TrEMBL record:
Alphabetized Pfam families for the sequence: DUF4320
This protein's name: DUF4320 family protein
UniProt keyword annotations, A-Z: Membrane, Transmembrane, Transmembrane helix
Keyword Transmembrane part of the UniProt annotation: yes
TM spans (from-to): 20-40
Annotated InterPro entries: DUF4320 (IPR025469)
Length: 139
């Protein structure tokens, strides 16, 4: 039989080709939905990282080696995120933030939508922000 004739057929029966196409479309949609949920979970993990960094900086009164170690520990499970970094900004030195001074933490990274085979088709930049106020008094 001619394939065009089978595809254009308006009879009530289902052909193998149309069944294959329906299953293929359904599988592509499932892969897309799973990828979107993965990106949402990565965003939640990055929000958690920024919140934990804010708490640590609030108590220590600035950034130090412990801040980098905490970031490395929290970022380890997110190995599939490219370029995962953090940045702390304050009006002055970020090493010694005086009590009552606000500061901001930004965690950035890149994920990809790619389907079943991790094709990395669509890059998505993700940013998580956190803000806090130092609780440490520097003499």
């Amino acid at each position: 039989m001619n394939i065009k004739k089978i595809i254009r057929s308006e009879r009530g029966d289902v052909s193998y080709i149309s069944t294959f196409v329906y299953i293929l479309v359904a599988m592509i949609m499932v892969a897309f939905i799973l990828n979107v949920f993965h990106i949402i979970s990565v965003k939640q993990e990055m929000d958690h990282i920024s919140d934990q960094l804010v708490k640590q900086i609030q108590l220590n009164g600035g950034t130090n080696a412990d801040t980098g170690a905490l970031f490395s520990y929290l970022a380890a499970p997110l190995s599939e995120v490219e370029g995962l970094t953090y940045q702390v900004t304050s009006c002055g030195s970020t090493n010694r933030i005086q009590i009552g001074t606000p500061f901001y933490v930004t965690v950035t990274g890149r994920c990809y939508l790619g389907g079943f085979w991790k094709l990395n088709l669509v890059p998505i930049d993700i940013k998580a922000n956190g803000a806090g106020v130092s609780e440490h008094y520097w003499k």
